[in-house]
Every structure is written in structure tokens, then in C-alpha cells.
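S1.2 Input.
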Amino acid sequence: MFKAAYQGTVGDSSEEAIVRFFQGVEITPVPCTTLEEVVSKVENREVEYGFIPTENQDLIKKQSLYKIYEYVHSKSHTTYAIFRMKEGY
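S1.3 Output.
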């Protein structure tokens, strides 16, 4: 089972976006207080994926370390950057 961190609370649209993006895969959404906490959890390998709105993508300062996907949540129309550490980092 994978874990994906996001900023928000249980049941909000970010959590729903994670569930929709990983449809059919067992995923545990991990709520975080800040976007920086999301990035930290990915970098520390506490979770496999992070979800942040693309307008905050500058928080992923060393983008060469990450594999980044984009996802548009159809309900909220928010575009997310879904990222994970690249192999070997």
C-alpha cells in the first residue's frame, strides 16, 4: 500500500483528488498542516507521493530529484503536481 501526503484535512478536495488519481490502487492519504510538510514527508521517504497545487510547485526546489506528474481534479478544477523521489536519490 502506498501513502500520499497532501495539505488539508480528512475529506477535503485534495484527499478526494488523491483517491481519484490512484483509482483502483490501495493508497493511504496523509493530511499535512503545510505544503512544506508535504515536501518534507516525500524527501524523508515517510510517504511515496506528495500532492500540491501546481501554483506552489516552486516548493519542489530540486526538481531534478523528483518524478513529477500533473493531475486536474475535475470537481475542484485544481491542477496538482504529484511528485515522488526519483530512483537512486
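S1.4 Remarks. Helices lie at 13-21, 35-43.
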